[in-house]
Recover the amino acids of this structure.
């Protein structure tokens, strides 16, 4: 059976652009940001390289670089199907709990480093020092509270 590239509605294209802009604000390059958005909006969950490139009007090079970037960030993954050589890309948002846990560890580590920076700050910058300590305090609060929030949410489901 021949592969058919999915068709997007005008509304889906607009949503991809809106999500793409939001992803860019979250520090993804434009092509990567649009691919993430496409994989969430597309009526087909898994898309081959050619579909991604044509649906977003990206060059092969831009598509390849963006997919490799997203794979390295573990934001997407690919699967293969028996009898086919092509790879199908899909979002890894299903692993969001693992990502949250990893981000919490990262925040905890950053808070420890910032706390060391606070300890070494000169006393003649009290406003800056107070702001930095406040940030560290909030980061530590997030690290202590988020696991409980996640547990309560799981229980509620």
């Amino acid at each position: 059976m021949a592969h058919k590239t999915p068709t997007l509605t005008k509304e889906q294209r607009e949503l991809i652009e809106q999500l793409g802009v939001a992803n860019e604000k979250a520090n993804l390059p434009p092509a990567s940001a649009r691919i993430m958005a496409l994989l969430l909006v597309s009526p087909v969950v898994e898309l081959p390289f050619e579909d991604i490139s044509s649906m977003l009007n990206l060059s092969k090079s831009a598509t390849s670089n963006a997919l490799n970037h997203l794979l390295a960030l573990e934001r997407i993954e690919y699967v293969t199907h028996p009898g086919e050589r092509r790879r199908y890309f899909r979002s890894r948002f299903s692993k969001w709990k693992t990502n949250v846990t990893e981000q919490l560890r990262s925040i905890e580590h950053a808070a420890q480093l910032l706390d060391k920076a606070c300890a070494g700050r000169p006393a003649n910058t009290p406003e800056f020092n107070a702001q930095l300590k406040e940030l560290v305090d909030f980061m530590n609060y997030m690290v202590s509270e988020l696991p409980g929030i996640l547990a309560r949410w799981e229980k509620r489901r």
In short: The two ends are 41 Å apart (CA to CA). The chain has a mean pLDDT of 94. The longest strand covers residues 76-80.
